[in-house]
Specification:
- By secondary structure, the protein is α/β, with parallel strands linked by helices.
- The chain is 35% helix and 24% strand.
- It has seven helices and nine strands, in the order βββαββαααβαβαββα.
- A six-stranded mixed beta sheet has the order 5-6-7-3-8-9, with helices on both faces. Strands 2-1-4 form a three-stranded antiparallel beta sheet, covered by helices on one side.
- A hairpin with a 5-residue loop joins strand 1 and strand 2.
- Helix 3 packs across helix 4 and helix 6 crosses helix 7.
- The longest helix has 23 residues.
- The structure holds adenosine-5'-triphosphate and magnesium ion.
- Magnesium ion (MG) binds next to helix 1.
C-alpha cells in the first residue's frame, strides 16, 4: 500500500522555542481511516494544520504524496464549526474551494450536485446558511471539503457540536462516503466511541511535548462495531490509555 501522509521527526513550535509536539512519526496509507484522540491542548489541531501546510514545521518534515492534478486539491480540511459564509448560498459555499483551481463552470455545477447528494442534502443548493440546521450546516462543510475532490480529508472534531442522533447519522454517512470514494482520512475527536467506531487505527497523542504514545489497531468488522463485546473492550482500552496520558501530562512527568 502507498503511504499518502508521512511525517518524520516532526515538531511544531509557536514561539520558535518550545515545541507543542516533537519527534512525531506518522504514516497514513492510501485509503486508510485514522482517528486521533488525545489530551486537550496536546496538539491535535496543530498536527492537522501542519499537514495541511497552514503552519510550518519547526523541525522534521511532512510529506504528502498525491498525484498532481490541476482540477483537484490534494487535501481538504473540515473544521469543528462549518464556517459557512452567510452571504453565499449553499451552492456557492460548496464551490469556495474550487476558486483558484482549474475547473469549468460545468464541473463546478457537477461537483455541487454530487457532493450535495453524498451528504444527503440534494434539495438545498439554493438555500442560505441561516436556513439550515446546525447538522445541515456541518454537512455542507463536509460537502465543501469533498467538492475539491481531495485524496486526503483532514477532519477536526467535525461532529463535536451535534446532538447524538445527528452525530450517529453523520458518522455512518462519512463511512459510506469514505468507502465509496477511497479517500484517506485523518479524523480528530474527543469521543472515544467515535474514534473506535470510525477508525482502522486510533492514535493517542499525549505527553509533554506531545508524541504518539499509543496506536490501537481496531480490527473489528465495521458492521459489528457500536455494540459488540470486542468493540466495548477496545473502547475501554483506549479510554484507559487516554486517562493515563492525561495523568502523565498534567503532572508534567
Ligand atoms: N496560533 C497559536 N499560537 C500560539 N499557541 C498556539 C496556537 N495554536 C495553538 N497553540 C497552542 O498549542 C497547543 C496545542 O494546541 P491544539 O489546538 O493543537 O491542541 P488540541 O490537541 O487540538 O486541543 P483540543 O483538544 O482542546 O482541541 C496548545 O497549548 C495551544 O495553546
Ligand atoms: Mg483542537
Amino acid at each position: 500500500m502507498a503511504t499518502v501522509i508521512h511525517t518524520t521527526d516532526l515538531a511544531v513550535s509557536f514561539d520558535g522555542e518550545t515545541p507543542v509536539f516533537e519527534g512525531l512519526n506518522l504514516a497514513i496509507e492510501k485509503g486508510e481511516f485514522v482517528t486521533l484522540v488525545g489530551v486537550s491542548g496536546a496538539g491535535k489541531s496543530t498536527l492537522l494544520r501542519v499537514i495541511a501546510d497552514l503552519i510550518p514545521a519547526f523541525r522534521g518534515s511532512v510529506t504528502v504524496d498525491t498525484p498532481d492534478d490541476p482540477g483537484k486539491r490534494p487535501i481538504a480540511m473540515v473544521f469543528q464549526a462549518a464556517n459557512l459564509m452567510p452571504w453565499r448560498r449553499v451552492k456557492d459555499n460548496i464551490t469556495l474551494g474550487l476558486e483558484g483551481i482549474q475547473v469549468t463552470d460545468a464541473v463546478k455545477r457537477e461537483r455541487v450536485a454530487w457532493t450535495l447528494k453524498l451528504v444527503g442534502l440534494d434539495e438545498m443548493a439554493e438555500r442560505w446558511p441561516y436556513q439550515l440546521s446546525g447538522g445541515q450546516r456541518q454537512r455542507i462543510g463536509i460537502a465543501r471539503a469533498l467538492a475539491v475532490d481531495p485524496d486526503i480529508l483532514l477532519m477536526d472534531e467535525p461532529f463535536g457540536a451535534l446532538d447524538a442522533i445527528t452525530r450517529t447519522a453523520l458518522q455512518d454517512e462519512l463511512l459510506r462516503i469514505w468507502q465509496e470514494t477511497g479517500k484517506s482520512v485523518l479524523f480528530v475527536t474527543h469521543d472515544i466511541e467515535e474514534a473506535v467506531y470510525l477508525g482502522d487505527r486510533v492514535l493517542l497523542l499525549g505527553d509533554s511535548p506531545a508524541r504518539i504514545v499509543e496506536t490501537y489497531t481496531v480490527g473489528i468488522d465495521r458492521t459489528e462495531r457500536r455494540e459488540s463485546e470486542a468493540f466495548l473492550r477496545q473502547v475501554e482500552r483506549v479510554r484507559a490509555g487516554l486517562q493515563a496520558a492525561i495523568e502523565t501530562t498534567s503532572t508534567g512527568a
